[in-house]
């Protein structure tokens, strides 16, 4: 589908890609990996036609549709969520307008026997065929289904897009790409603004999608669940592994070991040759051998080793000053934004040394509670921070708050005190800011580089409560692993808001689930939480929350009452779905009967005209769509019955 041949990309004398060649096949699930700055995003831009290579060829057939989701994008205002989603069907909507115009013209014509009239009829048939082939009747349902899958509520559909945060607007763009059904998905960090439920929905979608997927992600679980091929970019070259990410890691270690042996052997050979040349350079009797060795050195294809592999991200938090046993106490805490209630009557305590994970759908109040704990938002109820608690806070937008005009060095020098000031270069080097990097201005850094820089600032003061709101966004795999290791060794208290399952696995001792304006405590780690909820994915949780919000179910304090209301609501939903299934079966029977009637007509050659064939195709298409609809409704019905325990 996509082939690149001898690709070279250069920036101001620096070569990013050197004679790169490979092919993306129709069913590939490719994960692009490599250090920050290796060229992953650049390669996606080249595939998408957003950037040109210096040399080489990129071949994409004209009929191949590309769906590209960049990390950063511009958004347009002036539409509702559903209207913006439907822009994905521009061709279908335009076809619908053309069909309406042709029908109007036909209604005004009386020259039924003329050639022009027959051309108009044929044109209408062609447009109708194209419209039905593209699923024109179902675009509204498809848009709604995809929006719901990525976490939107039906009540969101009529809201203006500019009412949503950047993360939610990125989801709208993702919805539009999914609806266009491209032949190749190019996704650059698609999970950065998604919650666990939406990530798992996207995984399910991409795993069964008939096209190709090329993605950049630092979410190890996401890569493992989707990819069957891993392409590593290292020092301008690519290494193609026909395996998922975890298998690639093992194979990469083997290749790295072999590469290092070859590199060391070559370095020894080069040194021995240079020593020989230097020793006998001025001896006439050795001049032929010296010249031969010089030519030999010139022909050597030097082995390069990625410098990232030679560095170590040494992340170590200072010893935490001892706090009181009670780090935080919350009683009857509620928070609203105007009339919108986000958190209601929360009550919990956080004890010294606990490592907590805040999880749940975006918009359920995780970041809001973090800001309340930090004293950034007013609220009702009690939020009491314990004795001698010193908080270190990493916010989602922490990296964006850095002064873009300052250099990397000055950004750290401004907050460093005492002996730390003499070690700034070493600290920056440990975070992979080496050489000229420390003199770069913050505004030219990538998202990952800014996040690492913001993390360094957090490390410079000894704290005993770390509050980290999405700390892994834009961090590469290695940085996340080292950060996680440091957090495991940290002797203070940790609160982590994250959607990264692999990062949370083994880190948190307790999970706080945010839903329906409150929180629920689960002992154990993230995968234990998911398993205890009896979910292979989080779709069931999404449905419960959606039902509770849209039907405005009141949550009563009594556990028995709560169970009763939940079961009552489920019974209503089951009855509604059963009626929908019955109606769908009636429609299927009608379509099947219609098809039989048309087939009987077509048995007679006299009836084999274009209109009859068109009616036959339309009936078959409607039957297929209704069968698909019937299957989806039945799956939802079975899941509800199973959940209710009937």
UniProtKB/TrEMBL annotation:
It comes from Ancylomarina salipaludis. SMART domains: AAA. Belongs to the ABC transporter superfamily. ABCF family. YbiT subfamily. CDD domains: ABCF_EF-3. Signal peptide: none annotated. This is Probable ATP-binding protein YbiT. One of its GO terms (molecular function) is ATP binding. Keywords: ATP-binding, Coiled coil, Nucleotide-binding, Repeat. Residues 567-643 form a coiled coil. Residues 2-260, 328-548 form the ABC transporter domain.
């Amino acid at each position: 589908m996509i082939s690149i041949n001898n690709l070279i990309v250069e920036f101001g004398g620096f070569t990013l890609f050197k004679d790169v060649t490979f092919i993306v096949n129709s069913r590939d699930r490719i994960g692009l990996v490599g250090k920050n700055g290796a060229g992953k995003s650049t390669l996606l831009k080249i595939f998408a036609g957003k950037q040109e290579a210096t040399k080489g060829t990129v071949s994409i057939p004209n009929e191949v549709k590309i769906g590209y989701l960049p990390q950063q994008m511009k958004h347009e205002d002036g539409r509702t969520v559903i209207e913006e989603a439907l822009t994905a069907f521009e061709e279908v909507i335009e076809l619908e307008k053309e069909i309406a115009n042709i029908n109007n013209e036909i209604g005004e014509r009386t020259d039924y026997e003329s050639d022009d009239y027959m051309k108009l009829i044929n044109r209408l048939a062609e447009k109708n065929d194209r419209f039905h082939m593209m699923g024109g009747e179902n675009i509204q349902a498809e848009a709604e289904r995809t929006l719901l899958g990525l976490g939107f509520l039906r009540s969101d559909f009529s809201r203006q897009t500019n009412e949503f945060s950047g993360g939610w607007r990125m989801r709208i763009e993702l919805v539009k790409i999914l609806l266009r059904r491209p032949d190749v998905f190019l996704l650059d960090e698609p999970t950065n603004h998604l919650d666990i439920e939406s990530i798992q929905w996207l995984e399910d979608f991409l795993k069964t999608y008939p096209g190709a997927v090329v993605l950049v992600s630092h979410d190890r679980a996401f890569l493992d669940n989707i990819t069957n091929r891993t392409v590593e970019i290292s020092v301008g070259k690519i290494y193609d592994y026909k395996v998922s990410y975890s298998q690639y890691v093992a194979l990469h270690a083997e290749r790295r070991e072999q590469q290092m042996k070859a590199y060391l052997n070559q370095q020894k050979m080069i040194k021995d040759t240079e020593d020989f040349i230097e020793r006998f350079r001025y001896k006439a009797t050795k001049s032929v051998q010296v010249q031969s060795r010089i030519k030999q050195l010139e022909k050597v294809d030097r082995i390069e080793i990625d410098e990232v592999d030679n560095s170590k991200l040494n992340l170590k938090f200072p010893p935490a000053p001892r706090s009181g046993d009670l780090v935080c106490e919350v009683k009857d805490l509620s928070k609203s934004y105007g009339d919108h209630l986000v958190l209601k009557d929360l009550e919990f305590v956080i004890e010294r040394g606990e490592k907590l994970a805040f999880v749940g759908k975006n918009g359920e109040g995780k970041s809001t509670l973090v800001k309340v704990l930090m004293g950034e938002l007013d609220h009702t109820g009690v939020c009491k921070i314990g004795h001698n608690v010193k908080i270190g806070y990493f916010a989602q937008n922490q990296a964006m708050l850095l002064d873009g005009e300052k250099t990397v060095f000055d950004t750290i020098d401004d907050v460093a005190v005492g002996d730390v000031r003499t070690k700034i270069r070493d600290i920056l080097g440990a975070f992979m800011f080496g050489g000229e990097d420390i003199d770069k201005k913050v505004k030219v850094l990538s998202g990952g580089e800014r996040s690492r820089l913001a993390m360094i600032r957090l490390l410079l003061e000894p704290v005993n409560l770390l509050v980290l709101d999405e700390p892994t966004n834009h961090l590469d795999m290695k940085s996340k692993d080292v950060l996680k290791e440091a957090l495991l060794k940290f002797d203070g208290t940790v609160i982590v808001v994250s959607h990264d399952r692999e990062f949370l696995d083994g880190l948190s001792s307790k999970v706080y689930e945010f839903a329906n304006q409150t929180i629920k405590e689960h002992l154990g780690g993230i995968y234990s939480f998911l398993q205890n909820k009896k979910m292979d994915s989080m779709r069931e949780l999404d449905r419960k929350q959606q039902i509770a919000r849209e039907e405005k179910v009141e949550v009563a304090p009594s556990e028995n009452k709560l169970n009763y209301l939940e079961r009552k609501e489920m019974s209503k939903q089951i009855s509604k779905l059963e009626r929908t299934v019955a109606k769908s079966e009636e429609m299927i029977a009608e379509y099947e009967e219609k098809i039989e009637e048309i087939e009987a007509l077509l048995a007679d050659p006299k009836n084999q005209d274009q209109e009859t064939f068109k009616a036959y195709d339309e009936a078959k298409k409607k039957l297929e769509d209704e069968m698909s609809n019937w299957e989806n409704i039945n799956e939802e019905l079975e899941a509800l019955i199973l959940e209710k325990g009937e």
